[in-house]
Amino acid sequence: MQITRFAMLWALAFFSILPYSIRAQELITNTPSPAEQSDATATPGVPPIAAGTIAVDVPILESLLNDGDGLEIMGISLERTLHTLERVVITVENRADAPLDGAAWFLLTPAYITEEEWKYAAYTAPTQLFEDLEPGEQVMLNFLGPTDGLLGEFKLSGWVHRVNADGTTSHADGVGYDAPLVIGPPLFMTVRDAEIYPVSGSAGEQILYVTMTLRNYSPQFAEVAYSFSLAQPGVEKPWENGLFNKPYQSLILLPGSELELTTRDVLEGLPDEPLEISAFLQQNIRGTYEFRSSDVFHQTVRPVTGPAN
Fold first, then answer.
1. What pTM value is reported for the model?
2. Could you give phi then psi for residue 237, rounded to 5 degrees?
3. Which of 79, 138, 182, 223 lies deepest, with the highest CB count within 10 Å?
4. Residue 209 in contact with residue 264, Cβ under 8 Å?
């Protein structure tokens, strides 16, 4: 009986310790549990997805309300969501002494363009004409947002020209909105920066830094995988014919979130010539990764002199 009682006590002690040992070795990941996925909008620290559209009135400085040639842009308003531009309304006033005809439109220019944005527009809205606008009167012109697969961060500007009697046009006024507008599908990526530095003390090694922004504007968690290729500009299928392919890295994007990350890779034997970064984003759908978006960095990169950071 003494042996049996001792064996029972030993077994109770062992099994009371065993669950603690197992719990202490559990893996911690950023993969959401089924309970978290069922109520994504209640995730602490994650802003809820905006219902409907967001109204924005573009601020116009008082000094800019007096620089038009007869036709003046008095206001620009937007209707947008987190990742789309739904509508643009441009209000034009005739400040001349006679009725005027005019034409108005808006442009979307990549956010990294800082000068002469009109030369590098990625999207030009269809021009709208108006006739016989009397002195002191205003006209409100409604434009729908782009629907042609535009992707990235853009700055908006509104424009109005006078339409002359001979059918030609002349610039009257323009107003810009520098706050970046994000346009793309609910799940997409953009490349923000890329740089190559030599490794200090090494004859041929270089460090490639690539900064990307991953976006998930859907109301659900998204398991994604990102990668990029380094290749000569214009190379077909850079993921097959490039100089370097970043192995796909997977992570979880919270609903309604943006994640900026920078990768660091040590490479060897890169040519001293301009190179191009092409990035790719996939989403895990029931165990199979499906392509979602790609982006090519707007500038070529090449090694620079100086020690690596």
1. 0.69
2. 50, 65
3. 182
4. yes
